[in-house]
């Protein structure tokens, strides 16, 4: 009898511990998604911004592609394709591109894409990004600039190149995780998509999550409609 009681409490402990652990992971993922994907301006969290009604995203490269090998770049894009469902391909036609990668000086980048920015910023930054979207907050164009003359290391260039591509997908928040590409700064540990980064991307491009949704709607979906446990268990 004592053995049965001991077994019961052992199974109860394992079940409770597992449920608590899963619940903690789910709550952490909810928090990470909101922080990393949604744009927070002075405490105001803006609605969801993403590409919709597209199966393929085309990108165009202006200038000399630098800082990572073509092999590493292709591998990075393949991971994004896998979790978002998009096909991401290069184009040699400027006007066909959804996403523009510009390698050059900010002054030239601003002129090319008719971007208004204070000139005093030109000497301070090694990158810039810009996006256009419609009234439903569906992305229509994304551009970003990498400034080789101001990029001090290859790691810095690789980080900017990848992080700004994620911004071109509407991922405009900032993670507190130093191993995440969504982290505010470049570190020794955030040169590639982490497992959590891929989970966040997968959530953002779940069909049930729509452009223009406000934080309250997003939280409701994360709590009831999007299967976060399944995403955590997936091999991404």
Termini distance? 45 Å
Structural class: alpha/beta
State the shape. Answer: globular
Mean pLDDT: 90
Strand line-up in the sheet with most strands = 4-3-5-7-6
Uncertain parts: 6-21
**What order do the helices and strands follow?**
HEEEHEEHEEHHHH
Helix content: 40-55%
Rg estimate, integer Å: 21 Å
Fraction in beta strands: 5-15%
Describe the largest sheet.
5 strands, mixed
How many distinct beta strands? 7
Q: How many helical elements?
A: 7
Descriptors:
236 residues; alpha/beta; 7 helices; single chain; five-stranded mixed beta sheet; 7 strands; two-stranded antiparallel sheet
Structure description:
The protein has about 240 residues and is an alpha/beta fold. Helix content is about 40%, strand content about 15%. The chain has a 5-stranded mixed β-sheet, covered by helices on one side. The chain has a two-stranded antiparallel ribbon with strand order 1-2. Helix 1 crosses helix 5 (about 195-205) and helix 2 (about 70-85) packs across helix 5 (about 195-205). The radius of gyration is 21 Å and the shape is globular. It starts with a helix and ends with a helix. About 30% of the residues are buried.
Tell me briefly what this model is:
This protein has 236 residues and is α/β, with parallel strands linked by helices. It has helices at residues 2-37, 70-84, 106-112, 154-167, 195-204, 215-224, 228-233, and strands spanning 40-41, 44-45, 56-62, 87-90, 99-103, 127-133, 139-146.
């Amino acid at each position: 009898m004592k053995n049965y009681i001991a077994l019961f409490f052992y199974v109860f402990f394992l079940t409770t511990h597992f449920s608590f652990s899963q619940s903690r992971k789910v709550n952490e993922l909810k928090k990470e998604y909101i922080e990393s994907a949604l744009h927070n301006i002075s405490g105001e969290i803006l609605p969801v911004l993403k590409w919709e009604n597209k199966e393929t995203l085309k990108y165009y490269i202006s200038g000399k592609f630098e800082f990572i090998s073509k092999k590493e770049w292709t591998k990075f894009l393949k991971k994004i394709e896998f979790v978002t469902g998009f096909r991401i391909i290069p184009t040699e036609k400027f006007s066909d591109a959804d996403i523009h990668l510009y390698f050059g000086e900010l002054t030239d980048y601003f002129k090319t894409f008719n971007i208004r920015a204070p000139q005093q910023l030109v000497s301070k930054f090694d990158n810039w990004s810009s996006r256009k979207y419609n009234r439903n907050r569906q992305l229509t164009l994304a551009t970003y600039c990498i400034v080789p003359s101001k990029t001090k290391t290859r790691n810095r260039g690789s980080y900017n190149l990848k992080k700004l591509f994620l911004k071109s997908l509407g991922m405009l928040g900032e993670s507190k995780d130093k191993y995440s590409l969504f982290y505010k700064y470049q570190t020794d540990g955030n040169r590639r998509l982490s497992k959590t980064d891929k989970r966040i991307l997968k959530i953002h491009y779940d069909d049930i999550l729509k452009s223009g949704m406000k934080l309250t709607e997003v939280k409701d979906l994360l709590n009831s409609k999007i299967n976060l446990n399944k995403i955590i268990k997936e091999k991404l």
